[in-house]
Design a protein that fits this description.
Oligomer: single chain
Number of helices: 5
Strand order of the largest sheet: 4-6-8-7
Shape: globular
Length: 225
């Protein structure tokens, strides 16, 4: 009898360990991402077609007291708008939260080269690193989806990439694309208009906005970006 009990305990313990191992493999862990493969970006343009910059100007993120280095002009207008909405609608931005232009050419994925051109930013990249999915709460994803739909594909989000980076936002089109210029102009008009659209005045959970964001996400998934 004692041998039978020991055998049952062994089998039970094995099952628990095996189950835990399977669960661990299936559930993403934000704090335990595998170290990404790093390589050096040597091209004169980043992956989205923007020219690599030796330096970039600093731009205010409205309402947050924070700044980020970005390519001046349309890219800065659009990306600081993304950061502004994150600050007002997801969580307050603190010093060191937002990373923009860099001259460090080591990248884990080609899309990280877009920091070299100042046409991308990362919000809390240590919390949401390359290769990890599922770091954002559902309500935070609602806001992200609303931002992407509002910007009509001009900004791409790293959470949608094959190898994700949920902190990453980039200009999806090359410089001079009319869609980029038109969106920057629209944001400028929103900012100047009554109520300061985007400055905490947007309700991403409004049923009409939710429906629009879901429709945009479905279209985006079908077209691959």
């Amino acid at each position: 009898m004692r041998g039978e009990i020991s055998r049952r305990r062994l089998l039970g313990a094995t099952a628990v360990v095996t189950g835990a191992a399977v669960a661990s493999a299936l559930v993403p862990s934000v704090g335990h991402a595998a170290p990404p493969d790093v390589r050096t970006w040597r091209r004169s343009r980043s992956a989205n077609g923007w020219p690599v910059l030796a330096s970039a100007d600093w731009h205010d993120i409205e309402g947050s007291g924070q700044k980020v280095a970005l390519a001046s002009g349309d890219a800065a207008v659009i990306l600081t708008y993304v950061a502004r909405r994150f600050h007002y609608e997801i969580d307050q931005l603190r010093p060191g939260d937002v990373h923009g232009h860099t001259t460090v050419a080591q990248v884990a994925e080609a899309y990280e080269s877009n920091y070299l051109s100042g046409s991308a930013l990362a919000i809390r990249p240590q919390a949401y690193p390359v290769g990890v999915r599922g770091g954002l709460y559902p309500r935070e994803l609602v806001v992200i989806r609303d931002i992407l739909a509002e910007l009509e594909g001009v900004v791409a989000w790293g959470g949608d990439f094959e190898r994700p980076k949920e902190s990453h936002f980039e200009i999806a089109y090359p410089p001079g694309d009319r869609r980029v210029a038109a969106m920057a102009q629209r944001i400028a008009e929103w900012t100047r208009g009554p109520g300061g659209k985007g400055a905490g005045a947007i309700d991403a959970f409004d049923p009409a906005r939710l429906a629009r964001a879901r429709a945009f996400a479905r279209r985006n998934a079908r077209t691959g970006g």
